[in-house]
Design brief:
- The chain is of the alpha/beta class.
- The chain contains two helices and seven strands; from the N terminus they run βαββββαββ.
- A hairpin with a 2-residue loop joins β4 and β5.
- The longest helix has 11 residues.
Length: 96
């Protein structure tokens, strides 16, 4: 289980969420929503959460992106890639 993020995606997060060096982005499984890999759940995002027991983590441009061990089940031992879609002007999450 690996995590990656493209530089355009990092820039998108910084601009959209007004992030600064030292900030964090946590990805977590949340109940409800659409587009998840598990029926009834979707991917949630929170800013400036404390990384207590990250199972996946990457630091780019001073921002730490991570997933806690308690949410690892959502990714089902698959890799997690965060990319930027210029066409949609938003980030795209690929779990494969």
């Amino acid at each position: 289980m690996e995590m990656s993020i493209t530089q355009p995606a990092v820039k998108w997060f910084i601009n959209e969420l007004e992030l600064e060096s030292g900030d964090t982005i946590r990805f977590f499984a949340r109940y409800g929503g659409h587009g998840g890999i598990h029926k009834g759940f979707s991917l949630g995002i929170s800013t400036n959460a404390q990384a207590n027991n990250p199972v996946m983590q990457i630091k780019e441009q001073g921002i730490t992106f991570f997933v806690e061990k308690s949410d690892a089940w959502y990714f089902d031992d698959m890799d997690f890639h965060i990319k930027y879609s210029r066409k949609l002007d938003e980030v795209d999450f690929v779990i494969e």
